[in-house]
Amino acid sequence: MIMVLLSVLLAVSAALLSPRLAGASTELQSVLKNTHGGNEYGYPTDFTRGIMPIPVHSHNDYWRDIPFFTGLSKGCVSTEADVWLYNGTLYVGHDESSLTEERTLESLYINPMLDVLKRQNPQTPFVTSPTKNGVFDTTTAQTLYFFIDVKTAGPETFQAVIAALEPLRQEGYLTTLTKNQTVTSGPITVIGTGNTPLNMVAPVADRDYFFDAHLDALKEDTQITSLISPIASTSFGQTVGRVSYGTDGTVLSDEQLETLRAQIKLANERGIGARYWETPYFPIRTRNAIWQILLQEGVALLNADDLDAVAAYF
Ligand SMILES: *[C@@H]1O[C@H](CO)[C@@H](O)[C@H](O)[C@H]1NC(C)=O
Ligand SMILES: *[C@@H]1O[C@H](CO)[C@@H](O)[C@H](O)[C@H]1NC(C)=O
């Protein structure tokens, strides 16, 4: 049996190598071209196949031509929506002038997320118990951080956010805290920021939303734990001040690096991930040097506006 297989294999490889069969490669090319899209060449969860997650926050995601999906296509594990509450509806946009009837939290984020997660968690005869795959087909356990930046009055708006998450909640797609002690990672981890009131998050023992604490104030805010704030953020510029690319190739002074290092270390010791916004985006070598330092020092997420550049960087 083995001998037969072996001789078949040898015959096949000889045939493939033989110049007399050069026509076969044209045929093969034709097969490759024409089978594309056939049922047997797709699989249920292939929507995000091949995308490698990168530790990047798609900053001002709602500004992109196609919010959510663009960041997803680059592998960003974190996204963001600014929300405004008017007459019971949460609209998404950077300021009042950019809001429209159509651009809502539901239409731009909740529904697309549900759609992707339903594709990643198909119900077929082969799946015998419910799955909780995340949005990335390559790394199904990877959660997607979803920062919701509350722009209008905190208590009312965040209450509406909690209600708006219901479709994701019902499917079991949210990361949860139970009994104030156990975090169960789910496909989407919601983190309230902007006007989100800390007192609508921290005291709640059973919830599926978290709080973006001030990274620069963690030392004083000793009550902030990773159960409240899986990620804490602050402004890069306010933390380290101005940076410039030195003639010796360094971009931060020893003092600046020390400040950054201490802040990230303190957060990480408490199980809290660090994120800096307003990192320099120009000149490019300064931007890249800062990205490298931040990753080296252990930030959880890089904040990026130019997703093509950051994807290429990784
Ligand atoms: C909210 O409702 C009021 C009363 O119906 C209406 O006048 C107003 O234009 C609405 N605002 C928005 C942003 O839809
Ligand atoms: C949950 O834990 C937080 C942080 O330790 C605490 O402030 C809060 O009071 C606790 N909530 C309940 C309901 O026990």
UniProtKB/TrEMBL annotation:
Do the record's keywords include Signal?
yes
- Keyword annotations from UniProtKB, A to Z: Signal
Coiled-coil ranges (or none) = none
For biological process, the GO terms are: lipid metabolic process
Q: Where are the transmembrane segments?
A: none
- Kindly indicate whether the keyword Signal belongs to this entry: yes
UniProt lists the family membership as follows: Belongs to the AIM6 family.
The protein here is known as Altered inheritance of mitochondria protein 6
- The source organism is Aspergillus avenaceus
